[in-house]
Design brief:
The chain is α/β, with parallel strands linked by helices. The chain folds into three domains: 5-124, Gyrase A, domain 2 (2-Layer Sandwich), CATH 3.30.1360; 129-215 and 384-445, tRNA modification GTPase MnmE domain 2 (Four Helix Bundle (Hemerythrin (Met), subunit A), Up-down Bundle), CATH 1.20.120.430; 219-371, Rossmann fold, CATH 3.40.50.300. Helix content is 48%, strand content 18%. The chain has helices spanning 27-34, 40-45, 91-103, 113-120, 126-137, 141-151, 154-178, 185-218, 232-241, 274-278, 282-295, 314-323, 362-374, 388-409, 414-432, 438-445, and strands spanning 5-8, 17-23, 35-37, 50-58, 61-71, 82-88, 107-108, 220-226, 245-246, 258-264, 267-272, 301-307, 327-332, 350-353. The strands form two sheets. The chain has a seven-stranded mixed sheet with strand order 3-4-5-6-2-1-7. A seven-stranded mixed sheet has the order 9-10-11-8-12-13-14. Helix 6 packs across helix 8. The radius of gyration is 28 Å and the shape is flat. The chain binds guanosine-5'-diphosphate. Guanosine-5'-diphosphate is lined by residues 226, 228-234, 277, 332-333, 335-336, 355-357.
């Protein structure tokens, strides 16, 4: 029999309440041992989705007055019998309640084990499980919206459509292999090509949305570069003074590297190495430039600040050559132009007139960032792929379908084409978890906290 698991589901510390969760076949027996309901008759009626008031105790020794929620199998989050004990919000108290549950036969849950059980019991697929982590760690409204829609199964539905399409292709090929009829061969090839094309364009559509989804979820890695004194730290301060700046520290980021997060109308800008900008002595400027250069290949967005109507130097020109699709040039100190026309020295890039001093150019910058993220092509912000795992799997499916199309063009036998199509099917099944290895599950669920 599967273990019954228990964990504290709330963040430790003093709070109004804490919540201890139990899930498994013995959950009911464990509650029977340590919970004394105020209304024994109601408790015995064992109504589902009901809250019960009572005393939590260990062998008669009272510990707290608690509320217990009962959610019986199979209509619970995990699909097993689940009990949630709401005790008063002392950390010691919550620990005691948990310990009593453990002594009564439960085992401490591993990270994400409740959600993993929900997945294994078919309550949700892998996309939905990952969406729960995203929902918890979302930092902008659009990230929240995206995660919620994924949790509700919006993206899963699209992936199922893709899977069904590929499955159709597979059956079509198998039928062709089983009943090879001379004469209709060419007709079938035409039909097969069409179906493969349809599959490929479905993957392409998903991947296009994935670019946006990933930015909404993870933010846009942004580096501000420019010569000393051009106005970088003034820009940074101006941006951070807006109330939308997010000042909380995000765990897992090195203090030295990422200092600030900015919410630009639902798009999270991850301002990288702003520490370098704040340090201002000559020597550190030099070091800062070295450091910044290393960050550029990895950045999604480079804000190159220059002084209006000062020609680019060699370094700036080489930066533009290498990175111009992700560069936005901010021609700062436009207020000093005194009516003179602004010269764009690198017309292949977007060149925005700017003045931090007079607060000019910010709205245009915001508009340009949004235009890049949404690419003008997107109909909606929901049901998008959003993490690297999902994107890579769809990419794999696309490559396999392309290979199948190539094999078809080269008139390979159908059973060879079938191998590619099967590979595409496997890649898609990996996304929802229908075909997921234990290592992958381990990797995903270990990112949850204990009690989730
Ligand atoms: P950094 O070295 O690139 O970080 O540059 P700073 O932000 O320290 O700015 C250098 C100088 O330029 C400061 O004296 C700022 O007040 C000034 N400055 C920044 N932005 C503007 C602007 O838009 N117009 C004018 N006239 N001066 C500015």
């Amino acid at each position: 029999m599967e273990d019954t698991i228990a964990a504290i589901a709330t963040a430790m510390g003093e709070a109004a309440i804490h919540l201890v969760r139990l899930s498994g076949a013995q959950a009911q027996a464990i509650m029977g041992q340590c919970f004394c309901p105020q209304n024994a008759k109601r408790w015995q009626e064992a109504k589902n989705y009901t809250l019960y008031l009572g005393t939590f105790h260990e062998r008669g020794q009272k510990i707290d007055q608690v509320l217990v929620a009962r959610m019986a199998a199979p209509s619970s989050f995990t699909g097993e019998d689940v009990y949630e004990i709401h005790c008063h919000g002392g950390p010691l108290l919550a620990k005691k309640v948990l310990e009593v549950c453990l002594r009564a036969g439960a085992r401490l849950a591993e990270r994400g084990e409740f959600t993993k059980r929900a997945f294994l019991n078919g309550k949700l697929d892998l996309i939905q499980a990952e969406a729960i982590i995203d929902l918890i760690s979302a930092r902008t409204d659009s990230a929240l919206k995206l995660a919620f829609s994924q949790m509700q199964g919006g993206l899963s539905k699209k992936i199922h459509e893709l899977r069904d399409g590929i499955l159709d292709i597979y059956s079509f090929i198998e039928a062709g292999i089983d009943f090879p009829e001379d004469g209709v061969e060419d007709l079938d090839r035409g039909e097969l090509r069409q179906r493969l094309r349809r599959g490929i364009s479905q993957t392409e559509e998903l991947l296009a949305g994935g670019k946006t989804g990933k930015v909404l979820r993870d933010g846009l890695k942004t580096v501000i570069v420019g010569r000393p004194n051009v106005g970088k730290s003034s820009l940074l301060n101006a941006m951070l003074q807006e109330e939308r700046a997010i000042v909380t520290d995000i765990p897992g980021t090195t203090r030295d590297e990422i200092h600030e997060w900015l919410n630009v109308d639902g798009i999270l800008l991850q301002l990288i190495d702003t520490a370098g900008i704040r340090e201002s002595t000559e020597l550190i400027e030099q070091l800062g430039i070295e450091r910044t250069r290393k960050l550029l290949p990895d950045a999604d967005l480079i804000l190159l600040m220059v002084e209006a109507n000062v020609p680019l130097n060699a370094e700036e020109r080489s930066l533009m050559e290498q990175y111009h699709p992700k560069v936005i040039v901010l021609a700062n100190k436009c207020d000093l132009l005194q009516g003179k026309e602004l010269k764009a020295y690198a017309p292949e890039s977007v060149w925005l007139p700017f003045s931090v001093l007079e607060k000019k150019g910010f709205a245009e910058l915001e508009r340009e960032i949004k235009r890049r993220v949404y690419q003008g092509t997107l109909v909606q912000q929901e049901d998008l792929l959003s993490n690297v795992r999902q994107i890579q799997a769809v990419e794999k499916a696309k490559q396999a379908l392309r290979q199948a199309e190539q094999a078809l063009t080269e008139r390979f036998p159908w059973d060879i084409i079938s191998i590619d199509v099967r590979q595409a099917m496997r890649a898609v099944a990996e996304i929802t978890g229908e075909d997921a290895q234990e290592a992958l599950l381990e990797n995903i669920f270990s990112r949850f906290c204990i009690g989730k």
